[in-house]
Amino acid sequence: MKISYSWLKQFIQTDKTPQEISLILTDIGLEVESLEKVQPIVGGLEGLVIGHVVECGQHPNADRLRVTKVDVGTGEFLQIVCGAPNVAAGQKVVVATVGTTVFPNEGEPFKINKSKIRGEVSEGMICAEDEIGLGVSHDGIMVLPENTEIGIPAKSYFKMDDDFMFEIGLTPNRADAASHLGVARDLAAYLRTSYQLPDVSSFKTGNENLKIEVKVEDTTACPRYSSVSITGVTVKSSPDWLKDKLKVIGIRPINNIVDVTNYVLHELGQPLHAFDADQIKGKRIIVKKCQEGTPFITLDDVERKLSADDLMICDTEKPLCIAGVFGGKTSGVSEKTTNIFLESAYFNSVSVRKTSKRHNLKTDASFRFERGTDPEITVFALKRAALLIQEIAGGEISSSVSDIYPVKSTPFDVEVSYANIVKLIGQDIPSEEIKAIILALGIEVVKETTEDLSLKVPAYKVDVTRECDIIEEVLRIYGYNNIHIPTKVNASLAYTAKPNKENVQNLIADMLTANGFLEIWCNSLTRSAYSKNPDEAVRILNPLSSDLNVMRQSLLQPALESVAYNQNRKNSDLKLYEFGKTYHHIDSKYVERSRLLILISGAKQSEQWNHATTPSTFYNLKAAVDAIIGRLGINNYQVEEVKDENFAYGLKYFRGDKALVSFGAATVSDRKQADVDKEVFYADFDWALLLDTVRKNKIVNKEVSKYPAVRRDLSMLVDEQITFDELKAIAFKTEKKLIKSVQVFDVYQGDKLPAGKKSYALNFTLQDEEQTLTDKQIDAIMQKIIVNLAQTAKAEIRK
What are the angstrom distances between the C-alpha of 606 and each of 24, 574, 601, 741? Predict the structure, then answer.
């Protein structure tokens, strides 16, 4: 939100500089994100002064040049060479002195230097209006009236006062501060001074020649509707003062009528709308909702299909305006408009927000209506706008003010305790100071005791409805920086359940990130087509769209959408992970489950000159899964092949009847549903179960063995249905103490082997932590392993 410094000072008299006000506003909750100096024209006429041409003679070396003597009020005359055909002695002119930077309408700015022109010294420049941005004429220099005072700055003569623009990061709850009046109210409360509202006492009805009847059919969506008619206006460009005010806050001037409505909107925070009264059929306005699908062309020349829930401003034949959001093309003010119907209404914030979102229309009016405007200011704003229109567009007020307000708004009743204020703020503030702040904020004290206050909060403070809100108001005006930080902080030790969930999650996240994975956060809302168990789906009662109508039952589908998004943008080599939750409706109860998803797709590593690009495989995923399981210190689990609809193939690590993780290749149907054409491998961890398992882990510290480890290899022929895990289990069953690891380093299946057979090459690492193993001991262990492999797995050891 943009606020003008000079405009703000029309409400409140203060000698505070823009920089000081910027700090004050930030301290009281209206954070100033930037402070910018704004000049009516580029350069702001800086360095230009009013001069008097004392002498003017022919240049000795140029027919078209004149040599002048100019008095600029310094006591010494400046010699200036001028080429303008109309320069003459006795003129009052605008002079750019040496060192001044001039900003012409066309071309780059340039600096005035002392120089010689055809042999004659020139100590400045006598300016034409287009050379300093004051006009477009270049027929000659600007000649000012004879009584113009010399030596004064040009910016003072032309009343080019600089302004400052505050860019305020307005939070959604501060609807009351979405205007210059709102900011002035807060500033006045902080400075303990008063603010001045514009004077509308001169408003009066001239005649009743243009009565337009108003009927509000939906008083819930439109609790108040005020209006007035004005005849005989002249639509034209706005005066400079109005255009300059709007330009400072970034509003493009359109015409004097529209500019007035924009001016009052940003001045008082009340949106207005001006209709061409001659376009209102039947001289009647009806505030109602139209039939579903009714076509309506808005001001941006786009035809929109109305919803049955959209509140519309209509005449007897057609809709004219989307209430509180956007006007219609046919009913707006144009150059031909002579009669105006002016609207100032209070619309329901929820109704406006839904309509604005439904049609993807964001306007200054909807911004304020969505957050909540002041229902009590509609008539005041209407009179303010009508008087301004009369001032700059002429015309006559041709109807009484119509004000449909069936149920008047009432102030919020709030009880606040002095003790609770001190308790929540954490500092003892005198009750007199608290009361003074409350009154300065425009809140009425109805009843007062030594312990508490009974208050009535004005309707424009839409976010102040509870005791804690009052306390927040007191604190921000009192000043956050005035709350003392004690030198001693008292704290009590609290028991924290082990393991610390955040620490464990960060541990795994750091490990994955260090291994090239990127964390993603996907939307918990997704489409119902992804639900493999529709009966368990948690459905949204009022979904934004059909693509966001259920809560996700799996982390996979949203992650596949991320894969598709990246692959469509030539980023197909992906390693992703997400900590998230899934949502289920089981046995009339809502169940929320914590999960961890890791996903791999595309090449194993990016393409390089010194190695070939190889695609990621199931085993790259398995390595990542094993790394996570190992990092969490989980080693006692069973393994089996996954056989369900979620994986094309894969494995499951489990304990008892609970799966720690299932991982493998995504099915073709899942990939197709998300429009992913490359193979995807993913792992789905039960994160809550992993944390529970980690909690039961016992940490045992032991010394690193000082005795060497020994490796032995075996190559064997086994039936093709035998898995490595089975062989590994036989080895550890044979010797639990000395065998430290069993790894597979080669697998072969082919036509050189008997049918139904495959070859495994395993390495065994043996180590005794108390002594060095001898060859005899090692051979004895390996012989036992060979015998057990032959008996249990029918393995044939290859020599």
Answer: 53, 10, 12, 32
Please check the confidence at residue 489 and state whether its pLDDT lies above 80: no
Strand partners for 712:
764
Q: Does the structure show a pLDDT above 90 at 751?
A: no
Is pTM, for the whole model, over 0.70?
no
Dist. CA 221–CA 571, nearest whole Å: 48
Residue partners of 95: CB distance under 8 A and separation at least 6: 48, 49, 50, 51, 70, 72, 78, 80, 124, 125, 126, 127
481: which 2 tokens?
């920086």
Alpha-carbon dihedral sign for residues 433, 437, 440, 442: negative
What pLDDT is recorded for position 229? Answer: 96
What residues contact 736, with CB distance under 8 A and at least 6 apart?
Answer: none
Q: What is the pLDDT of residue 599?
A: 96
Residues pairing with 149 in the sheet: none
The full DSSP string for 101-142 is: EE--SSS--EE---EEETTEEE-EEEPPGGGTTS-S--SS--
Output the CA–CA distances (angstroms, integers) from residue 34 to 5, 166, 174, 185, 620, in the order listed: 13, 6, 19, 21, 50
Question: Dmax over Cα atoms in the chain, in whole Å?
Answer: 124
The CA distances from residue 622 to 662, 707, 779, in Å, are 10, 31, 33
Phi, psi at residue 184, to the nearest 5°? Answer: -65, -35
Type of residue at 703 = E
Helical ranges in 613-723 per DSSP H: 618-631, 668-673, 687-696
Q: Measuring CA to CA, which residue among 747, 739, 741, 740 is closest to residue 715?
A: 747
* CA–CA gap between residue 461 and residue 418 (Å, rounded): 21
* Cβ(100)–Cβ(148) below 8 Å: no
The mean pLDDT of 130-156, rounded to a whole number, is: 88
Which residue in the block uniquely carries the two structure tokens 């300059």?
244
Tokens 């390996």 sit at which residue?
782
Burial track 412-434 (b if 16+ CB lie within 10 A, e otherwise)? bebebbbebbeeebeeebebeeb
For residue 695, what pLDDT is reported? 84
The 3-class secondary structure across 639-667, one letter per residue, is EEECCCCCCCEEEEEEECCEEEEEEEECC
Name the pLDDT band for 583 (thresholds 50, 70, 90): very high
Question: Which is nearest to 94 in space by CA: 111, 110, 117, 70?
Answer: 70
Q: What is the pLDDT of residues 664-693, one digit of tens each?
A: 999 999 999 999 999 999 999 999 999 998
Residue 108: both structure tokens together: 């780059």
Quote the radius of gyration of the chain (alpha carbons, Å). Answer: 40
Q: What is the pLDDT of residue 38?
A: 84
